[in-house]
Write a structure and sequence with these properties.
The structure holds two protein chains of two kinds. By secondary structure, chain A is an all-beta fold. Chain A is 0% helix and 56% strand. In chain A, the strands form two sheets. In chain A, strands 2, 4, 5, 6, 9, 10 and 11 form a seven-stranded mixed β-sheet that branches. In chain A, strands 1-3-8-7 form a four-stranded antiparallel β-sheet, with no helix packed on it. In chain B, the strands form two sheets. In chain B, strands 2, 4, 5, 9, 10 and 11 form a six-stranded mixed β-sheet that branches. By secondary structure, chain B is mainly β. The radius of gyration of chain B is 13 Å and the shape is globular. Helices cover 0% and strands 53% of the residues of chain B. The chains are: A mainly beta, B mainly beta. Chains A and B meet through strand 5, strand 9 and strand 10 of A and strand 4 and strand 5 of B.
Chain lengths: 113, 112
Amino acid sequence: GAVVSQHPSRVICKSGTSVKIECRSLDFQATTMFWYRQFPKQSLMLMATSNEGSKATYEQGVEKDKFLINHASLTLSTLTVTSAHPEDSSFYICSAREDTEQYFGPGTRLTVT
Amino acid sequence: QKEVEQDPGPLSVPEGAIVSLNCTYSNSAFQYFMWYRQYSRKGPELLMYTYSSGNKEDGRFTAQVDKSSKYISLFIRDSQPSDSATYLCAMRRPGGYQKVTFGIGTKLQVIP
């Protein structure tokens, strides 16, 4: 199947700083990428849908000014958590769609101290 | 009522057993159905994808969809300890930009 990479795999940052997470589709072009958040023992929560070259569509309740998404090319989308706080600590997973199938990255564990 | 219902388990089975994982859904607009496997602290891995009622087989895995009952299943034959993971059902409506709705996931443990 298609491969999606994510970097970094884990990051620890101090409260108030910003963190950028990269998502790349390695062997296919993804016109649509998705960003999810997952809390322990809970399912994936969609944060936003990102289309190449256009603004991301955020789900209700997700602060667009806090979670900045950029989808600059068909193989790269970035999520920047601005002014991170401890409650932003979570597992962030990106996903890229190839035709009708959707593939996930390995996830990024963010810990805000 | 959630759009997708899935028993979180945990489900424990002996090695070699046939595992049956299930989800029900309420939105008849869902036409594409997926099963993902997620190991602890990893991203979900696509196992099966189908868009029609009936069975689809891939190795030890069989995905079954019954649109009339709004019920999907994943069967794992000859289960192995390496199958121990959380299995998420997922589904979406037609259209390239339609978002995927996930079940909560069923945690499976295959005991050697």
